[in-house]
Design a protein that fits this description.
This protein folds into two domains: 125 residues, 3-Layer(aba) Sandwich (Rossmann fold); 142 residues, 3-Layer(aba) Sandwich (Cytidine Deaminase, domain 2). 35% of the residues lie in helices and 18% in strands. The protein contains ten helices and 13 strands. The strands form three sheets. It has a six-stranded mixed beta sheet, with helices on both faces. Helix 4 runs antiparallel to helix 5, helix 8 packs parallel to helix 9 and helix 9 runs parallel beside helix 10.
């Protein structure tokens, strides 16, 4: 497809600055901090209405959904060949876009990307960037130290019942993953309490709080586990499960025993704060092996 904007000079062949297209949450800053520690210059491209103001600690360009032409131009102006997508983002409707000409010319491609789940959408948008010569990089490639290690963060560990619930949750996520539904499930006493869908993990946990208040959940407070895992077919460059202090707080509010995520396949934005929050709220956070990996 012909671009609406004149081609800029070729992107640099060396590493150059890293462009971080960021949504909400603490993960974008954690990735930026890690890249900076590794000696990489970072430029934040913050999505207005989603990204936190704290991203302005780094050179920052604010952008709005639907202005691909401006974003491509800014990335080239900053010399960013490598690009990371990271942070929370609510799946937009068409009314959430403010379209520039470059985006309008790509509407058939974007419309096809919207005809599917989140993985299909993200992969379709990523191809637009790759067609423009940008290289899409996973957050874990930039900051491997942010990947959840195997074992507990802190001193609290899951009980035998918790481990049974974790195994059941992993099996369920492996089964539902091909349908591109979500990355999280809550299980208590082998009973599935909730499956993440379009609402996201936080809203799902809010649902658990409501169900407890309504007396719909029989499991006592302090029982049950939030399990998070990437979908089997998922491109690991995009949308890995993420855990932060806010996740721990939400797990505690939901009256669960703790949370488990697949080690090496989930990002922990602030590991020390996560461990401290888990200790303070009396819940566990543990990195586990994937479904079918054995003990």
């Amino acid at each position: 497809m012909v671009s609406s904007e004149p081609r800029q000079a070729a992107l640099p062949d060396d590493a150059g600055p890293l462009g971080i297209i960021c949504g909400g949450g603490s993960v974008p800053l954690a990735v930026a901090d890690a890249a900076s520690r590794h000696g990489r210059r970072v430029v934040m491209f913050a999505l207005r209405g989603f990204a936190d103001a704290g991203v302005e600690r780094y050179p920052c360009r604010w952008i709005v959904l639907g202005t691909l032409g401006r974003l491509f131009r800014l990335l080239r102006q900053e010399g960013c060949r490598d690009v990371v997508f990271v942070g929370s983002l609510t799946r937009p409707g068409w009314l959430g876009f403010r379209l520039d000409l470059a985006t309008v010319l790509r509407l058939p491609h974007i419309a096809r990307a919207f005809r599917g789940g989140d993985d299909h959408l993200i992969a379709g948008i990523a191809r637009l960037f790759e067609d423009e010569g940008f290289r899409m990089i996973g957050a874990h490639e930039i900051a491997p130290e942010l990947l959840l290690p195997e074992g507990p963060l802190g001193t609290r560990v899951p009980s035998e019942q918790d481990r049974t619930d974790i195994e059941r949750g992993l099996a369920l996520l492996a089964a539902t993953g091909p349908f591109d539904i979500g990355q999280a499930v809550v299980v208590a006493g082998r009973h599935v309490l909730a499956i993440e869908a379009i609402e996201g993990t936080d809203r799902m946990l809010d649902r658990i709080v409501t169900l407890r208040k309504e007396g719909r959940i029989r499991a006592p407070a302090g029982a049950g586990v939030l399990i998070k895992a990437a979908k089997p077919q998922q491109d690991r460059r995009f949308d890995l499960p993420a855990i932060g202090p806010a996740t721990v707080e939400a797990v505690a509010r939901a009256g669960l025993a703790g949370l488990a995520a697949v080690a090496g396949d989930a990002i922990v934005a602030e590991p020390q704060r996560v461990a401290q929050a888990a200790e303070a709220r009396g819940v566990f956070v543990v990195g586990i092996k994937p479904a079918g990996a054995g003990a």
